[in-house]
């Protein structure tokens, strides 16, 4: 495959990992408003461009020379960014976890002849790809995905570190969780139904309802589906206290004559505590259970910080899923025009195996077992 020109919008920890990975085979330019975020990529010889993507017309100007766009902006910018990329007629693979319904952009993408793969991370993302593959081949009765990214070293009180923007992380704790029971969509508050789950070789983690099914609720006719987030035991109680006390609210409150959103203050205070410091290591754990035709198919992932490349696990597991799919689009192996959730990518066996192999080549290995 000839080298293609790719632009990565967003140079956070995951955006950087994707830019570096893609630069091994393509010409890559990374774009971000933060010079500090771009600096590590410049040191590696990757082209960088400092730009404020929130300015009118800026995205269209930035993406014009490129063959493919990788979306890695914070969730609150994700939908608008994807819309601008589609209007510019550019194919996009996106990881931003935005709250809007992505299918609202489907007609626009089809009119523009654009391939737009959304939610293409680890979960949502790889979990969808796995489900899409098996759902095309058997009648699945139950899908359960347990997933979390955690620091190796546990520090009181939260025992958590964030790879994504703090606002996106807090969104997980406030956005109502949707899951499917006996064919009916059930909506519960985030952080509900906490339970302890044991992972051999890792220990006990706590799972709770989160809104990770996303597009699967629309695209899959499966009677029982749920996604739950994993944290160290006890973390959920602190988060529930903060949420119920109003610290995650976006409704402004007046303090000494100044209107302040509690969530902005909370993010400002918590992110320094949640930020991974240089040298700190993390891991990603995911367990997917599929019940179908009298058997259970299980995929297990336990991925760790890569000391050789100094790459965070959550950046690897999220980013390399997206870069694998980006290569499928660039090679012409995935050509569906319109909005594509990752489960559409997984339908074709060749594409499914390509993504699994691409990840395995980078040390991200999903272990399959059947009972």
Plain-language structure description:
The chain is of the alpha/beta class. The chain has two domains: 169 residues, NAD(P)-binding Rossmann-like Domain (Rossmann fold, 3-Layer(aba) Sandwich), CATH 3.40.50.720; 179 residues, Dihydrodipicolinate Reductase, domain 2 (2-Layer Sandwich). The protein contains 13 helices and 18 strands. A seven-stranded parallel β-sheet has the order 3-2-1-4-5-6-17, sandwiched between helices. The longest helix has 18 residues. The relative contact order is 0.16. The mean pLDDT is 94.
Considering the chains and any ligands shown, give keywords for the structure.
7-stranded mixed beta sheet; single chain; alpha/beta; 13 helices; 2 domains; 7-stranded parallel beta sheet; 371 residues; Rossmann fold; Dihydrodipicolinate Reductase, domain 2
Write the layout of secondary structure elements.
Layout: E1 5-9, H1 13-22, E2 27-32, H2 35-43, E3 47-50, H3 58-63, E4 68-71, H4 75-87, E5 92-94, H5 106-112, E6 115-117, H6 126-135, E7 140-151, H7 166-174, E8 177-181, E9 184-188, E10 195-199, E11 203-209, H8 216-219, E12 224-231, H9 235-244, E13 253-255, E14 258-260, H10 262-274, E15 282-292, E16 295-304, H11 313-330, E17 338-340, H12 342-345, H13 349-361, E18 367-370
Parallel strand pairs: 1-2, 1-4, 2-3, 4-5, 5-6, 6-17, 7-12
Antiparallel strand pairs: 7-15, 8-9, 10-11, 11-12, 13-14, 15-16, 16-18
Helix pairs in contact: 1-2, 1-11, 11-13
Quick structural overview:
With 371 residues, the chain is α/β, with parallel strands linked by helices. It is 34% helix and 27% strand.
């Amino acid at each position: 495959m000839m080298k293609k020109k790719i632009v990565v919008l967003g140079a956070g920890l995951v955006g950087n990992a994707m830019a570096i990975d893609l630069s091994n085979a393509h010409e890559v330019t990374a774009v971000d408003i933060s010079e500090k975020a771009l600096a590590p990529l410049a040191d590696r010889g990757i082209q960088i461009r400092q730009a404020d993507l929130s300015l009118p017309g800026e995205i269209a100007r930035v993406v014009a020379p490129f063959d493919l766009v990788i979306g890695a902006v914070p969730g609150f910018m994700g939908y608008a960014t994807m819309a601008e990329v589609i209007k510019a007629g550019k194919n996009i693979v996106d990881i931003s976890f935005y709250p809007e319904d992505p299918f609202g952009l489907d007609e626009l993408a089809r009119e523009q002849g654009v391939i737009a793969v959304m939610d293409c991370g680890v979960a949502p993302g790889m979990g969808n790809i796995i489900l899409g593959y098996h759902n095309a081949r058997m009648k699945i009765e139950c899908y359960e995905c347990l997933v979390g990214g955690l620091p190796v070293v546990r520090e009181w009180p939260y025992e958590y570190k964030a790879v994504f923007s703090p606002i996106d992380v807090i969104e997980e704790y406030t956005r109502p969780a949707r899951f499917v029971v006996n064919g009916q969509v059930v909506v519960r508050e985030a952080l509900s139904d906490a339970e302890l789950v044991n992972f051999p070789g890792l220990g006990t983690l706590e799972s709770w309802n989160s809104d990770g099914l996303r597009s699967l609720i629309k695209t899959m006719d499966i009677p029982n589906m749920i996604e739950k987030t994993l944290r160290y035991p006890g973390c959920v109680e602190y988060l529930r206290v903060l949420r119920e006390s109003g610290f995650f609210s976006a409704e402004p409150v007046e303090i000494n004559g100044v209107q302040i959103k509690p969530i902005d203050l909370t993010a400002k205070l918590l992110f320094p505590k949640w930020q991974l410091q240089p040298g700190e290591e993390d891991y990603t754990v995911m367990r997917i259970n599929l019940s179908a035709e009298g058997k259970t198919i299980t995929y297990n992932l336990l991925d760790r910080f890569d000391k050789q490349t100094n790459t965070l696990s959550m950046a690897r597991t999220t980013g390399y899923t997206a870069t694998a799919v980006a290569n499928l689009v660039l090679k012409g192996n995935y050509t569906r025009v319109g909005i594509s959730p990752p489960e559409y990518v997984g339908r074709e066996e060749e594409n499914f195996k390509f993504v699994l192999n691409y990840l395995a080549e980078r040390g991200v290995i999903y272990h399959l077992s059947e009972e």
